[in-house]
Each structure stands twice: as structure tokens, then as C-alpha cells.
Amino acid sequence: MPPSSSSSQKGDTSLFTWLNATLENTPLRITGWLWLVWWRLDGLFENMFRIGWHHDEHYFVMHEEVARQSMAVHGQLPAWNPYYCGGIPELANPQSEALSPDFLLRLVFGTEVGRRLTLFLFLFLLLEGTYRYARTLRMNPIGAVVGALAFLASNWFHRFTVTGWYNFVGGFALMPWALHWFETALRTQRWRYGVACAFAMAWIFMCAGTYTTPYVGLALATSAVGWSIGSFFRRRKKKDAPAHPSTARAPWIWLASIAALTVGLCAIRLLPMADIIVTYPRVWQGNETFSLAHVLQSLFDLPQLNMGIEGGSIGLVAVALTSLAITHRTGWRILVAAGVWFALCIGDHGPWSPHHWMEKIPIIKDLRAPDRMGIVVELYLALGLAAGLTQIERTTNWISTRVSTITGALSQRGSSQRGSSQILLAAMVVVVMFPWMKNNLERHPIDVPSFLWEGPIQPEVRDFKQARGNRWDAHIWPLISRGTLQCFEETPFVQSPLLRADLSQEEYTTAPNASVKRLHWSPNAITLSAKATTPFVVSINQNYHEAWTSNMGHIRSDQGLLTVHLPPGHHTLKLRFSDPLIHLGTAVSILSWLAIAWAYRRRRQRRTRKQLQPK
Amino acid sequence: MASRAGLFATVTRPTTTAPVRPWHVLFWILPVVTLGWMIRPALTAHLDQDPRVANLKTRSRVDNTPMNRQIFKRIAQADPVGRRLGKRDFPHHPWSQEDHRANHERRTARHVGNTMHVQLEHVYISLDQGIRNRWKGPGGHPLKATVVPLRPRTH
Asked: Nearest residue on chain A to B26, judged by CA atoms?
């Protein structure tokens, strides 16, 4: 935590001091956050086995259930998903959340319950992260709390929850943490904060962070620019000062170090995913632009524009207070960052718009829907609001101290007058802020999953088979041991036209006097008994992928269908999905974790040795 | 002062955090108890009688073949309509036609589930059973057992 503000100095017993001290008490604050999230997600822990109505929610439930079954039931890494499109990579799928730290909740409590706990966790992290980041930016606890509330009130979280995009909720909830740890690392020059920042980044990436990872990367870069400019001015002031780590290039060294560590931590997904992105580039839907009125409506909820868009969260009252941030020592950075992201938000309007140049950066150029960047603007505006309130508090303290000095000298009643003025100000803030906040939160409630879904069918339906299926109700299929051939993926995976939904058995041969029998089936490994008197081909009713291996014969693609060419005889054929990139990524990730553990141990040993040395 | 930056920095600065007193730990009882109370239903969801199992008593049976045939028949009857709508709305994009048909089928499945008082998964299992066993659909033909391969539209 940064040092306390002037208003909470020892001996100062004003209202603000008491309030700031209370909010600074972590257990009390956390309890407050818990109640707030509980209230915001009213009914979250009722009817636990229901899920949302939106087809995207069904899509994510399906992916998570497949990953959960692979790990919890079959004891395998969720490398392959045979339940969708006739078989596609799971771990390498950019939209998969498998192996994200929050996925542990799905493993322990099941997919439906785990998802609800995850949502609760993310909103809690959002509040605490925004608070901590605001404190890092030297805002007072009262301002930081209001800033966190303003960010929670963002309509984007309502939209993400309704559509089941918990990966977006998680990514943006962790964004303030990444920024907080990055700036704390810069300020303190302690590597443990750099590691924490890398961990936050890795979490964001693992949590299907297709958009959130580049967004947070850009936000960190924006922060680094701010620090570089700031350090340049600091150096100019003190020409003869000794070399200090906060030089203009230091933030970039930190950023590069954090990026390298992030890559190491999530290599297990990053490597196979990079291969997928290169092999199957995402379908780009063309240039997307938004009018200024559209973005303003989305952000500030301006009814007079009447754009027919569901309003945003940062009301005009908040914006008025945010403008005061310009007088705060870190406020200018926040407002500039908000301005930059606002300019990105409106999309590509030609060479004068930042988005036009952003589209020249690899990977980032593939991001669509630039209006989603509005959520980053909302974070910065929420922080600006915190800075504005901090300035009001400081100004009030300053004025009341001066007034009390003058009147106190005359009447000896200074402290009571100062207290009265602060109560008056607090009342004003509450009167202005509370209705806005209440109105905003009530207008945009976060709908908890409410669709009537009572869970899977009777256990007798167990043998995995491909069905024609239906991607609009994708959540049903893994629970009834059926794959859905009808599907949609943002990544244009290859789907074989030979896949069928009317086979009596999923592994078959068309050769005469030949037979195939399934001995064991799991998502990533199939064991078959196959026999024939002549060379024959065994077809598996799944898509071909080069990572499929077999203990005998040759694996081939027949119009995208997985087939194995076998010699005559009676064989026990073992097929396994074994992606070398996943193995390499696993090794890199494990080594990264070991390196962190080793560095931590080494520093501890050094510290202990130093303490034991006689003075 | 440090001479290096990034993860290689060797600077150690005194912290500004206030010292933690032993009795401060007691404060943590409050959030822990609050959290435990809030998420209690989630923690015990699988320990209580699983609603999935409880529902089995009142649920329709998927091995009820006559009923499954009836469900299949109603879904199959709507299949040509879905295909026609797909062709009308996306005349030049086969995958989108298929996707549109599936969306229509989804609505039909819900309607059938509601009117016949069966779970949604029962409807889909009946459909799968009918396609797999090549039960006759409209015009005396079985329903198509293949789909148009994935090719999302670009605009």
C-alpha cells in the first residue's frame, strides 16, 4: 500500500481520517466487497444447476464440461475436444478456458456451480484490484472505493454475464491487478511485483483472453509511456542526481521482463495456440467503425442521443468529478490514457485515427469490435473519478484547516468547524453520488443464469457417438455423451464432410472380411481391436489432426476424416492425441515456475544470511 | 539504489506498510465467515440431494421408444421448413443455411419439449435416435445425417 494521505496523518481525528482508516482496513473492506458482490449477483447461489439462455453461454459450458471431463474423469490434459465439430483442438483453442487458475473451481465443484463461483470471484477481484490500483496511483481510500464501485457499475459486465463471457469478466477484472503490480514494481523496483504482474497476465491469457490479453498489454504499454515521460521530467529537475532505476527506459525493461515471464508461464497453451492462429487465421469481419455519438452514448448513457444502445455506466456526474483529476499528481496520466483509449474505441476512421495504426500491429490487428475498448476507458474514468474525489477531499481539508486556523484563533473552536465542513462535503458527495450509483446499478442488473436446465440425462446414455447435434444448445451434448457435428467456431477449423451422425459404431472399416471393435474410449485416446485378412483402413468418425498418433499402421486424412491404414492380421490399435507443442509448452511452463521458485528461495537465503551476519 | 531494472533489479527499499499486530488476525474472521455463509449453497450443492437425481423420478424416460418416435416426428416435420428458411436468408452460403436450420430446430425442440412435457435433452436424444436408426421423416425419407462443414461467413 502506498503511504497514507495527508488527511490521515497521526493526530488528525477528522471524519475523513476515520473513514479513510476504516476503508484501509483490509478485512473490513473485503467484507464490504463481499456484500456488494452478493447484492450485485442477487440469486447467484440459488438453482445452482441452471445455466443462462444465451447460446454463447452454452458454448462456454460445453467447452468447460469437455475439459472438466477430460481432466476429472479421464485424467488427461484437455488437448482434444471430440464433442464439437467432429473433433477440434481444445487446449489450443483460443476460446478455451481449460488450465486457467479459476478452472480449478469447475474441477472441484462441477461446471455449473464452478462457473457461478468464478463469477463471484471475478467481481470481487475487480473491486479489490481497482481499489488497489487507485491507491497505487496515490488516491485516497474514499476516492478509491468510489472508483471501484464505478467500475463495477459498468454495463459491460452486465453484457458479459448475460452472454456467458466470463472470460471477459475475468480478464477485465484482473486488468487493474496487472496495472497495480506493474506500477508497484516500477515504484519499488521489487521483482516479486513483476512476477505478480506476469501471473496476472498469464491468468488473463489462460482465461480465454483473446481480447483481454492484448488490451491489458496495451494498457501496460500506456502506463509505461506515462512513467517514461514522468521520469524524463524528474531527471530534468535533478540533473546531478545519481543513476536511478526510474529512467525513461526502466518501464520498458520491466515490461519486456514481465512479457517474457508471462510467455514462460503460459507456454503450455501459448505454443499450441500460436500454431492454431498461424494455421487457421481468424475470420476477419472487415473494418468496424463507430460514430462519436455511438461511443459517447455507450460510455456516458446520454439519453438525448437516443442511439438505441443499452447505456454505459459512467454518468455525467462522474465525468464532471473526473475532470478534477487533472489537478491530481497522477491524474493527468489517467486522463491521457482515457483519451487514447477513447480514440481507439471509435475504430478506424482513416489515417488520423489511432485504431488505423493499431491495425498494423501483428495479432492486435485481428481484434474486432473496437467498441469493446470502451471498458478500458471506463476503468480510466473510474480512476479519474477516484482522483477527482481525492482532490476534493484534499481541498476541503486545506480550506477547512485555513478557516479553522483563522476562526480558531478568534473563537478556539477550529476543530469542530473543520469537522462540520467535512460532514457537509461528505453529505454533498453522498447526495450527488448515491442516486447516480444506485440508479446505474439498478438499471443494469447482472442477470444470473436463469434458464431452466435441469442437468444431464439418465446415465444409460454413455457410449460416445457423433450426433448431428445443434450448436445453439451446445451444452447438452457432452453431458449425454454425444458430439455435435453442427457447430460454430471463430477459428475456422477444418471439418470433414465425411462425418456422419447415423453410424452404428464410430470406428469402422469398409473392407470385406474385416471387423473393428472399440475396447476403450476417452477424448484423447482410443483403443480398438481390428482384424482383417488383407490390408485395410480403419476410419474413426472424427476429424484428422496431425497430432494423432498410433502404435501401428499409418495415420492418414481421408477428406479430413481420421483414418488408419493397417496391415492384415489381428491388432490392438491404440490411437493417442499427442501434440508435441503441448509437451514443449508444458516443459517451458514447468521450468518457468521452477525458476521463480528458485529465485524466491535464493533471495530468502540471502536475506537470512544477511540477518545472521554479525554487525 | 539499484543499477539495474526489470526482474534483475537488486534494490530493496523499506516498506511503508504498517506493522501487523497479532490481534489483527482476528479481523479476518469477519470476511472468512461472511464468505463461507454466502457460498455455502455452492459448497454443499453436490452433498445435498443432487437435483439431477431427484428429477429422475419425475422425468420422462428416454427409452420410451413410442414417445421418442413422436418427438422425432414433430422435429422432423419442421426440418424442411428450417432448410427453406436457411436458403431464403442465406442463398449463397451453405454453412449459414445449415446454421439457420439449426437455429430453427432449436426453437422447435424447445416448443416440443414444452408441449410434450419432456426435458430438452430428451428431445435431442430422440432426434439423435431417429437419425441414427433412420426413422422415416417427411416424405418417407430419413433426415440428413451429415452437416455442411464449418465455414463461418466473412461478412
From this structure: A27
* pTM recorded for the entire structure: 0.88
Q: Decide if pLDDT at B66 tops 70.
A: yes
The residue of chain A with its CA nearest to that of B56 is A458
Cβ atoms of A488 and A532 closer than 8 Å: no
User: pLDDT tens-digit profile of A565-594?
Assistant: 999 999 999 999 999 999 999 999 999 999
What is the band of B6 on the pLDDT scale with cuts at 50, 70, 90?
very low
Split into its structural domains, chain B has a count of 1
Q: Specify the long-range contacts of residues A220-224, CB closer than 8 Å, at least 24 apart.
A: A220/A178, A220/A179, A220/A182, A220/A255, A220/A258, A221/A255, A222/A337, A222/A340, A222/A341, A223/A179, A223/A182, A223/A183, A223/A251, A223/A333, A223/A337, A224/A182, A224/A251, A224/A252, A224/A254, A224/A255
Nearest CA in chain A to B33: A31
Query: In one letter, which amino acid is A468?
Result: R
- Count CB neighbours of A94 within 10 A: 20
Residue numbers of the domain that contains B107: 60-140
Predicted pLDDT of residue A493 = 93
Task: Give the whole-angstrom CA distance, residue A255 versus residue A59.
Answer: 34
The answer to whether B100 contacts chain A (CB < 8 Å) is no
Q: Within an 8 Å CB–CB cutoff, is residue B135 touching chain A?
A: no
Domain contains B155 = no
Which residue in A3, A286, A476 is closest to B120 by CB distance? A476
Chain B residues with beta carbon closer than 8 angstroms to that of A503: 132
Cβ under 8 Å to B: A residues 224-253: 242-245, 247, 249-250, 253
Q: How far is A428 from chain B (nearest CA, A)?
A: 30
Confidence check: pLDDT of A456 > 60: no
Q: Which residues pair with A514 in a beta bridge?
A: A532
Residue A128 amino acid letter: E
CB contact under 8 A, B11 and A189: yes
Which ranges of A207-266 does DSSP label H, i.e. alpha helix? 212-237, 250-265
Higher-confidence residue of A187 and A516: namely: A516
Of chain A, the end-to-end C-alpha distance in Å amounts to 31
Instruction: Give the nearest chain B residue to A478 (CA atoms).
Output: B121
**Which helix (H) or strand (E) covers residue A89, if one does?**
strand A88-89
Contacts for B80 with CB less than 8 Å, ≥ 6 apart: B138
Please check whether residue A32 touches B, CB under 8 A: no
Residues 48-67 of A with CB under 8 A from B: 48-49
A78 pLDDT band, cuts 50/70/90, is very high
Q: Is B26 inside any structural domain?
A: no
Share of chain A above pLDDT 70, in %: 82
Q: What percent of chain A has pLDDT over 90?
A: 48
Which 8-state DSSP code applies to residue A211?
T
Query: CA B103, CA A471: separation in Å to the nearest integer?
Result: 8
Domains of chain A: 6-443 (no CATH), 507-578 (2.60.40)
Query: Between chains, do A2 and B122 touch, taking CB under 8 Å as contact?
Result: no
- Amino acid in position B91: P
B88 touches chain A (CB under 8 A): no
| Residue A411 pLDDT > 60 | no
Query: Which of A608, A614, A604, A546 lies closest to A580, judged by CA?
Result: A546
- pLDDT of B61 strictly over 70: no
Instruction: Give the closest-approach CA distance of B60 to chain A in angstroms.
Output: 10
The predicted pLDDT at position A286 comes to 59
Q: How far is CA A508 from CA A98, A462, B26, in A?
A: 31, 19, 65
- Averaged pLDDT, A272-294: 78
Q: ipTM of this predicted complex?
A: 0.85
Nearest CA to CA, how far is B106 from chain A (Å)? 7
